[in-house]
Write a structure and sequence with these properties.
- By secondary structure, the protein is an alpha+beta fold.
- The protein has a single domain, classed as 4-Layer Sandwich (Metallo-beta-lactamase, Chain A), CATH 3.60.15.
- It is 17% helix and 29% strand.
- Strands 6-23-5-7-8-9-10-14 form an eight-stranded mixed beta sheet.
- Strand 20, helix 5 and strand 21 form a beta-alpha-beta unit.
- The protein is globular and about 55 Å long.
Amino acid sequence: MLWASNRQKSTGNAETPILFPVNGHPEPMAILPIEKNSGKRGRCDGTMTENLLKPADRVEVTVLVDNYIDLFVPPATAVDHRLPFDPGRMLRAEHGFSSLVRVFSGKKEHVILLDAGLSCDCLIHNARQLGLDLNEVEAVVLSHGHFDHFGGLDEFFHSTTHQVPLVLHPDAFLVRRMNSPVKGPFDLPYLDKVTLKKAGADLQLRREPSTLGAGHILVTGEVKRTTSFEKGLPGMETLAGDHWKADPIRDDQAVVINVQGKGLVVISGCAHAGIINTVEYAKKITGIDAVHAVMGGFHLTGTAFEPVIGPTIDAMKRVNPAYVVPMHCTGWKAIHRFDEEMPATFILNTVGTTYRF
């Protein structure tokens, strides 16, 4: 197990960390100082976007973990490739997100993993059911430090045959809780740096934009927030010394690919910075206005986000992507609104679908 619940009880003051299992053995929690980039590189170098994002010939995105699965959903467009019906293929869905991103340029291809789902084994299980070799993964990108995105990291790193870089924002290690106005505060699991290193992760902590895959894959880093209606996740708090404060989830980031002649493919984990902010920031740092596809979690689920659904869809229409694929935390109401208001653009995702752009 990679993570721990951070406190025995949430109060206004910090308490002594509890023991938690690491690989089945109780050990004390260790929160180390934020370290600078060590300069170590795995199979996939990371460089700042001083060199522009290089165009790719094409990209394939296979959804390994998502909230929804339906074996009978037919292809909706030329880009969503559904699996043939097979009752012996036992894919799982859960409240989490993970996707395998494969980028092609000439005769070369680069493979990264974006996020790792909620449970320790859903990612690995689904990859095996799909016949995918996760040893192809050159780097892992963590969209942000929430438990439904890092749950499978430990199993992934233990399963690989080589050391793999993990690109994440330093704030992904923050101790966090959700403070509900109705139920009060409750703790959230959080990442442990020591355990990640023991599992084999080569930590690459970055706040700024960077590239992977020989410059063909962009990690946005911390997203600039400019819209008036995207205000983060209400009730999120982080521990600062001996007190709790509002958590803007600054570690939220996305992955971007520029497909030659088509435009940007933007893949978010939860888009706590706002999916429109994320797309606009991707356009700004790449200098590319054309957006071909927007996909991933948009976090529009729940009562608090219902007023945000309309402005988000209106803004997405102005972005005018060829495809919109809302997943995970976008929520039932928002997904149906996208279907109703952008029917020529919307694609319903199911676990195991591969998108080819």
